[in-house]
Amino acid sequence: MAETASLRVQKFLADAGICSRRAAEELIAAGEVWVNGSAATLGQKVDPDSDKVVVRGKQVRSAPQPRITLAVNKPRGLVCSNDDPNNPDTVFDMLPRELAKFRFFCAGRLDKDSEGLVVLTTDGDLANRLMHPRNTIVKRYQVKLEVPFPASRIPTLKRGVVIEGERHQVEYAALVNPDRDATSVNLDVWMHHGKKREIRQLFMALGFEVRRLRRYQIGAFPLKGIPLRAGKKLTAREIESLFTLPKLLPNANTSTTRRAPAFRNPDSNED
To answer: What homologous superfamily does CATH list for 3-59?
Structure first.
């Protein structure tokens, strides 16, 4: 095959919208990807026009998807997964009909009980950039607790605690509208790593139950202006802003944007 026509199989799968490049590497290592009847190997090259690529028994179409990246405002109750038999309601249900025909995946997830800004993309390379540990992608959250949190314990959040052998910590935390006794049920929290349910587990380990968790910014791109269950298509400049370190602001209510959402799924009901 011509060198110019070939792609590494993991990039081919990412371009086809099957999964991110890192997830494709995991599928290949697990023996779930086959090329022309043989198990694929990491780094193997394929010709999209002539090679038959099969993932978990299903052939992958060779035509690449258009590169579309969306910012959506996820409500509670939806999972960020393409295939979760235990949770049929997913963030992809928010997509309007004209976009639902494409294969999107989440570039940075929120758990079922959390809400706010989620990036959906058909661009496997972008998803890999957003999720790769070597890239510092700052995510900002509004945290509402069941009981007030004292300012004196903010250093503990930054220092972190070890839970099941892993350290859970935040990069920045501040009380929002604290009372006279320097406590508040509302906090502004920043993280760039984000293990599964890390914020909830961290606060729970300190004796504080999270009542509500809302992601309101990724990098320098804010959620404000996008209603619940709606979203907008990101421009190239807005995509790059996801990688920009945000400026330190006094609280979670100071992010600014006035852009109207580009879509709202008419079949969705407001929570």
So the answer is: RNA-binding S4 domain (3.10.290.10)
